[in-house]
Every structure is written in C-alpha cells, then in structure tokens.
Amino acid sequence: MAIEFNPKMGSGLAVQVAPESAERQMVSGPQIVASRAALFVERHGPVFRLAGGIVGGSGQDFVRAFAQKVFGIPPEQVIGSALKTRYTYDKKGKGILLRAPMLLLDDNFSDKPEDIYLFIGRRPRAAFGNSTGDRQMLEYTHAGPGPRLMMLVLHDDAKREYAYGPAQGLPASKVGTFTQALYDEAVSQGWLVISMKNDWKRMFPFE
C-alpha cells in the first residue's frame, strides 16, 4: 500500500476517512503507469472506507487534468502548486479566468499540511510520501488523535525503477531528496518505510 511518484514530480498523497475509494499511482513523464499497489487500493478502497486526495508539489491544474480518469480522484480533491488566477472578460464580454505569472501555492514541505487545512479542513488519517517534501505532511498526520498510518517509499531499485537518497547510502538527488534524517525520523516515529527493491516482488502489472 505504498504510493509512488516520479521523484522529479515530488508528489505525495494524503487519505482521509470517508465512504469513497482511494487509489495510488505512479506518474512517469507524460505517461501514466499504474503500480500494482495502486490497482489494489482502487479495487478495495471502498472496503477500507477511504477517500483519497492527491497532495503534491506538481502543478495543480496539470494533475487535475488526469486525476479523475487515472486515479479515480475528482479534481476538487487535488491539491498542488498553483499560479494565481484573475477574473476578467474576453472579447465577447464573457467572464473568464486567466493565470497570472505569480506563484500562489508552492505545495511542498510545510505548505502541504497548511494547504490540506486550507482546502480540506481535516487532518488526514493516513499519509504517504517519498521525499523530504512530504515530511511535514506525515508529521501533521501523525500528530492527530487515534490510529494513524504514515508510509514512505524508498526508491532504491535502480534496475526496475529509480534509486535515489541519499538515505541508506543511495545516490544523492537534487529533486525528490530522501535524506538520512527523514529515514531516521520515520524509524524513530514508527512510520513504515517501503523498499522498492526488497518489498516489491512485482512492481507493475505489465511485468
């Protein structure tokens, strides 16, 4: 039940308790490649009574364009980085929205839990990530009362997917960084760390 996203996308996912399904998938460039974990949750999410929401550093409008079709998650449940928009009129006098060249949301690090509260108003029951950009989201989830689930995917399989860290001696990366400090915090806090190399016998349905 891990979430995977291309490290260049820097994305994570948060899940809240509700009577809807939750899914997880992997974004790889212009392609959308579903992992076996994503397909499992897609089919069995209603049993767990989970409502999924994508909370990622990628462009909000970009992810919303395919979230419904690929993840089964409606666009209103997608939170991401976004530019400011302004209301104006076209040549025919119709109201339109235009994007302005100004950053409104940079949905990474502490901005993730802040944006979750801003848009959703609830603390997640479970949160999944794969980089330091997801740390505060997992901490915020963990700090809530009652049972909580926090999981991190360690991309350590260079042959089948990616290998980056520098946690556990993996190659360092300037994007999607997974530091040793994050790994140590996960272990000390009881968060689950999923090894792509050791925990996944089969990664994708087409394998």
Written description of the protein model:
The protein has 207 residues and is an alpha/beta fold. It has one domain (11-199): 3-Layer(aba) Sandwich (Rossmann fold), CATH 3.40.50. The chain has helices at residues 36-48, 60-71, 111-119, 135-142, 180-189, 196-199; strands spanning 11-17, 26-28, 31-33, 50-59, 78-89, 95-105, 126-129, 149-154, 192-195. Strands 6-5-4-1-7-8-9 form a seven-stranded mixed beta sheet, sandwiched between helices. Strands 2-3 form a two-stranded antiparallel ribbon. β8 (149-154), α5 (180-189) and β9 (192-195) form a beta-alpha-beta unit. 41% of the residues are buried. Residues 1-11 and 15-32 have low confidence and may be disordered.
Structure described in brief:
The protein has 207 residues and is α/β, with parallel strands linked by helices. It is built from six helices and nine strands, in the order E-E-E-H-E-H-E-E-H-E-H-E-H-E-H.
Instruction: State the helix count.
Output: 6
Query: How many angstroms separate the termini?
Result: 18 Å
Report the CATH architecture. 3-Layer(aba) Sandwich
Number of strands: 9
Helical content class: 25-40%
Strand order of the largest sheet: 6-5-4-1-7-8-9
Strand content: 25-35%
The class by helix and strand makeup works out as: alpha/beta
CATH topology: Rossmann fold
Give the SSE string. EEEHEHEEHEHEHEH
Overall pLDDT score: 81
Main pleated-sheet profile: 7 strands, mixed
Radius of gyration over alpha carbons? 17 Å
CATH class: Alpha Beta
User: What characteristic shape results from the CA principal axes?
Assistant: globular
Low-pLDDT parts are 1-11, 15-32
How many structural domains in the coordinates?
1
